[in-house]
Amino acid sequence: MRPEKKQVALSDNEKAIFEILKSQKRMVLNDLKSQSGLSNKGWDKGIKGLGKHGLTKVEKTEEGLFVELI
How many CB atoms lie within 10 A of CB 25? Predict the structure, then answer.
């Protein structure tokens, strides 16, 4: 049997970022940041929290910085 996935409690900042990202799957970091409308501190806490929960990852490529859902 496969173990059930645990529900993760997200903060308001994490929810705002996640909702935008879930329709796109992968976005340029600056575009996502501007669409979220969060302050720098709110953005930082939100994106780090999503990474700690294992929901997103930030990737640096030759084209730029991207955030994608895992």
Answer: 9
Domains of the chain: 12-69 (1.10.10.10)
Residue-level pLDDT, tens digit, the chain, 70 residues: 666 666 778 899 999 999 999 888 899 999 999 999 999 999 999 999 999 999 999 999 999 999 999 8
Closest CA to 47 of 24, 25, 23, 21: 21
Is residue 53 within 8 Å of residue 17, measured between CB atoms?
no
For residue 44, what are the CA distances in angstroms to 27, 41, 47, 59, 62?
A: 16, 5, 6, 16, 23
